[in-house]
Amino acid sequence: MKYVETRDQKCHKTLNTITPKSLAENSLRVNKKKNRMSIISLSISGTLIIAMALFIGSINLKTMMLQTYPLNENFMIGVSLDNFYERLPQIAKDNPFTDDLLREVTNIVGVEKVIKDESIIVRVKAPILTDSDGEPMREVINSISPELIENVGEIVDGNVDYTTLGTDGVILNQFRIDRSNVPMDFSVGDKITFEINTGDGVTEKEFSVKGIAYFQDVGLFYVSPDTIHEVSSYNWTTHISVFCAHDNERAVQNSLQELINRNTNLTLKVYLDDFSMIENWMNAIMGSVYGVCLFLFLFGILNMVNMLITSMIVRKQEFALLQAVGMSGKQLRSMLYQEGLGISLKSLLVSVILGVVCGYGFSYLGRDILSFKFISFHFSVFPVLLFGLLMIGLQMAISYSICKTIEKKTLTERLRSE
Q1: Which one-letter DSSP state was computed for residue 163?
Q2: How far lies 127's CA from each of 122, 124, 207, 231, 380, in Å?
Q3: 223 with 145: CB under 8 angstroms?
Q4: Is residue 105 a contact partner of residue 223, using CB atoms and an 8 Å limit?
């Protein structure tokens, strides 16, 4: 019998090197279903935190303030009107905004500029636009100024050139059109006929649409001040805007308040006070949202803690056996750190992707669907870093505490325990 060497003998299987990393990966693979709940709960809270932080960070408060202070003025003095449409014609005949009052305001030390805003009541005769009661739509035509045009958010059609508006041109506010209960569809060149309340009666006048734009102001129709003066001789000023240097604001405010106290029909609005109020309101909303997100975040952390502690109890003999065959305490900690990081990094990745998508979606909904032009999506890495550092830091601290708990018993005690 002769020995013949075979060439197709199978080679022995090469064993992989056992390292803390490979042990951590194996544990994550074996406990995949248990880890899923922690990843889901952490991802939900992370998505909400990042999405809301990005959305609120995309709100420009100064642009938002243009809805109340359309010229970016420091102060606004207005007439108190309980029933606007009925009282305005009466106020126009005996308007508190006299030339003497305007002169006093202009002469206050620190005042740089004073701009009048005039409004006159109209009904839209053509095209036919009706209110809920079936009557021709009642509205207000506002005077426009170069300062208001400077703060236009977006031009939709035509132009908003103050110098070419004339006395028969009108500019429409798309911001109001989008929110009107009355369907409106206007284009540049369209004709609109108004029935204007002159204070002594009514008169009809036809206007041509010169432009359509997004004004942060709440007016729907804008014409030149000369147009209002042409149709009525009364004083239709409803408020004045006062500009001053930042350093003089409080001194000017005190002087304006003294003037206002002489006439109970006038009110004073201060930009700084209203801005602070809105800022505090936004901070309160942020606090409430983050409170809910923190609750969800803690729920996810508790799931992860429960998973790690359960793993320690179930695997304490495994840890002891690994240390008995040569694994150091440092390697054991490294293994547990990597197990926790596997959960944290997956949760962070999902949170960032979904958080950015949701944050952009909220901003798109606000700006393009609801026409809030003070919302413009802006990505900031700060909420991502904050959430990531908080989650990974807590996970590392929990893993370190588990290691310390394990090391309190001797190796022999852990090997003998059931």
Answers
A1: G
A2: 14, 7, 12, 21, 47
A3: no
A4: no
Q: Distance (Å, rounded) from C-alpha 223 to C-alpha 142?
A: 6
Please say whether the dihedral angle defined by the alpha carbons of residues 331, 332, 337 and 338, taken in this order, is positive or negative.
positive
Tokens linked to 20: 């803390």
Q: What is the CA radius of gyration of the chain?
A: 35
- CA pair distance 52, 361, nearest whole angstrom: 11
Question: In the chain, what's the furthest Cα-to-Cα distance?
Answer: 133
Give the DSSP letter string of 322-367: HHHTT--HHHHHHHHHHHHHHHHHHHHHHHHHHHHHHHHHHHHIII
Other Cβ atoms less than 10 A from the Cβ of 24: the count is: 19
What residues contact 386, with CB distance under 8 A and at least 6 apart?
none
Q: List the pLDDT tens digit at each of the 418 positions of the chain.
A: 444 445 555 555 555 667 777 777 777 777 777 778 778 878 888 888 888 888 888 888 888 888 889 888 999 999 887 778 888 888 899 899 999 999 999 999 999 999 999 999 999 998 988 877 788 899 999 999 998 998 887 899 998 988 889 899 999 999 888 888 888 889 999 999 999 999 989 999 999 999 999 887 778 999 999 999 999 999 999 999 999 998 899 999 999 999 988 888 899 999 999 999 988 988 888 788 778 777 777 776 777 677 667 766 777 777 777 777 777 777 877 887 887 788 888 888 999 999 999 999 999 998 888 778 788 888 888 888 888 888 888 878 877 887 777 777 777 776 666 5
Q: Round to whole Å and give the CA distance between 406 and 414.
A: 9
Tokens of 403: 């290691």
Q: What is the dihedral sign for C-alpha 214, 216, 220, 221?
A: negative
d(CA 52, CA 64): 18
Overall residue count recorded for the chain in this entry: 418
Q: And the tokens for 61?
A: 């408060």
C-alpha dihedral (24, 28, 34, 38), degrees to nearest 10: 80
255-to-55, 248, 260, 261, 310 alpha-carbon distances in Å: 40, 11, 9, 10, 70
